[in-house]
Amino acid sequence: SRQQEARAWLEQGVTLFRDKEDRLEQLFCLNYLAAVMQHSGDYVAATTHGEAALRLARQCADVHGVVVAQNILSQIAYEVGEFARAQRLAQISLALDRERGNNWSTAFSLVNVGRALLALGEFANAVACFSEALKIRKAIGDPRGTGYCLNLLGDVAAAQDNIDEARLRYHDALGLFEGISNLQGAGESLLRLGRLALVAGDLAVAERTLLEALRRASLVGATPLQLGVLAELAVAFWHQGDPRAAELAELVLSHNATRGASRARLDWFGAAASAAGEPDCYDRLREVVASLLPVADSAVVAVEI
C-alpha cells in the first residue's frame, strides 16, 4: 500500500541521513515516519519513532522538530486513551509555538490541546482552543484544517446534547472536505453524522452514512478510522438485532490499531480482547470491510488497507 511504500522510503531516509551525519534530515524522516505509523494505527512503532525524533530534536536544539514530535506523541496518547498525557505534551508544543509566533503550528497544537480537554470533559476550554484554531485556519486559507476544527466544535456540541449545532458543524465540515477531495476528512465527518443518526434512532440513515464513511476510509487506507466506523456499525447492527454486531465488536476490540475512543464505545458489549495483536487482525479487517462494501470496491479495499 501507499503507507507501506512511505514507511520504506522514510526508513531508508533515516538510515541514509544517520550514516551521513545529517541530523536535521534524519529528524525530518523520523517525525514523518512516526506520523505515517500513527496514521496506520501502529502506535507502538509510532511512539518509538516519535520519541527518537524528540531526543534528536533536543540534541539539535531544533524547536520546530521538538514541537512536531511533541504533537505526534500527544496524538498517539490521545488515540490510546491517555488524555491527561496528551494534554501535557500538546501544551508544551503550544507554549513553544506562541513564543516563536508560528500561527500554522499554533493552530495544530491548539487542536491537540482541545481534543484532550474535550475528552476530559472541559468543554468551555476545548471550545476556546478549537475556536482560536478555526480563526487561524480560516485566516491562512486552510480548508482542510478549517474542516477539522468544525468537526471538533461539532463534537463539543454533541457531547453537550446540542444535536442541531453538532449536525450543522459536521455538514459544514463535510462540504469543505468534499470540495477539496479529502476522503479521510469526509470520512471523519460522515462517521460523526452516522453517530448522530444512531443517537436519534434513525438506524437506516445511520447505516447508510456509516457505510459511506467506511468506503472513504478504505480508499485511503485509514485503518483507525475504519475501525471507528466499524465500532459504530456494531452498535447499529446491535440495535437491529443483527448477529454481525458481535463479530464487528470482537474485531474492533481485538485489533491493535483501535483508538481508545472506539474501544470505549464497545465496552458495554463485554467482549474481552483476547486476540490483541494477532497477525491475522489485518486480514480479518480486510474480509469484514470487503463484505460490507459493494463488490466494485473490494479490489481497491484489498490493496489500500
Which labels suit this protein?
305 residues, mainly alpha, disordered C terminus
What does this structure look like?
With 305 residues, this protein is mainly alpha-helical. 81% of the residues lie in helices and 0% in strands. It contains 16 helices and no strands. The C terminus is likely disordered.
Which structural category fits the helices and strands? mainly alpha
- Secondary structure: helix percent: over 70%
Low-pLDDT segments, ≥5 res: 271-276, 298-305
* C-alpha termini separation: 7 Å
Short description:
With 305 residues, the chain is mainly α. It has a domain at 214-305.
Please give the structural blueprint.
Blueprint: H1 2-19, H2 23-40, H3 43-60, H4 63-79, H5 83-100, H6 103-119, H7 123-139, H8 143-159, H9 163-179, H10 183-200, H11 203-219, H12 223-239, H13 244-254, H14 260-265, H15 281-292, H16 295-304
